[in-house]
Amino acid sequence: MIKDRGGEFMNPYESIQLPNVINAAGKMTYLGSSAVLPEVARTMSESARSFVDMAQLKATVQRKIAAMVEAEAACVTSCAAAGIVVSVAAALTGTDLDKVEALPLIKGGKREVILQKGHAVSFGANLTQMIRMTGAEVKEIGTVNGVKPYHLKGAINEATAAIVYVVSHHAVSSEMLSLREVTDIAALHGIPVIVDAAAEVDLQLYLAQGATAVIYSGHKAIGGPTSGLIIGSKPFMEACWLQEKGYARAMKIGKENIMGLYASLEAYMRLDQQSLTESYANIVDVLQREVTGIPGLSTRTAWDATRPIPRLQLIVGDEAGLTAKQLIGLLEQGTPSIRTRNHLADEGIIQFDPRELRLEEIGQIGTMLRSILDKRKQEA
Ligand SMILES: *Cc1c(COP(=O)(O)O)cnc(C)c1O
């Protein structure tokens, strides 16, 4: 049901001559992240055509979301990147409006944000820059392949405003401090720990592990429109809300996206992860059968490092007569444009992600692959 666009569907992007995209890349910001559920789209459309007191809307939705995920409080933002800026700003200013309005000039002594070296990632933009935008200084600790508790203890001083912790496939996953190790040390010094869990699926785990605030993308696992969410301690969220009088004004989220995020989250909370994972596995299975037997290509399945997501790996052999990178390019240039997950391309592997792929699109992927490889063979 999650793949259903609802009734007769016209792709509006074709009306401005943009190619139809088959999304086998996952929930990628550069492809528009998630396709919202039909009922979410309806809520958004009706919200966009109505008026509401924005302060009441935010307060109400934030209260309902906090109750849903069993957090003390919540703050809606325009995206997770904005959530990073807002929460770091909150750590710098607290609820002092004078400090909020002064940023990026920091009034007061706390100006340093600690980040493990293996967490200094790019998610398409540089996480470090999102932190530095507030005026804060980033203090990286350890090395890319090793951070120990003494690195963190040694970095904490009177200037420490917060620690940012990244949970992501982008981050180095081994030899970094665990969230528990970080929150235990931070608690001794009363330092807030801000977790960037933008693309993660679990809305309770990181608060349970002692985080002060946890940031999610509304348009990734939650499947909503472009939006973001911070959840966490009430005093910290109060400082986040106040950023609306400062930085968050330049990162505004509209009424229709607030309602879209809320409706998506309601559906997400009702969702049975087990059956969702099974539906993903089914898509991967059907796709595997579709592309098995194409000369030069072999397949296997693989699971995501941190999340319950199966993917099909297409291994491009010498027989194919082209490299994985060339094949990715041809899939992308086709009509429809087929987009895949490409960070293993150098190893000859193209990954197909099931999350935003529809069953009815799988035949087109097979047809396109066969036609590209047949053509290659004739040219050879
Ligand atoms: C996607 C992502 C972001 C940015 O999320 P947006 O909501 O698109 O701004 C930040 N951090 C991580 C780890 C991400 O994966």
From TrEMBL:
Residues of the signal peptide: none
Cofactor names: pyridoxal 5'-phosphate
Modified residues (N6-(pyridoxal phosphate)lysine): K220
Molecular function terms, GO-annotated: L-seryl-tRNA(Sec) selenium transferase activity
InterPro entries associated with the record: PyrdxlP-dep_Trfase, PyrdxlP-dep_Trfase_major, SelA-like
Family: Belongs to the SelA family.
Protein name, as recorded: SelA-like pyridoxal phosphate-dependent enzyme
Record organism: Paenibacillus thalictri
Record lineage: Bacteria, Bacillati, Bacillota, Bacilli, Bacillales
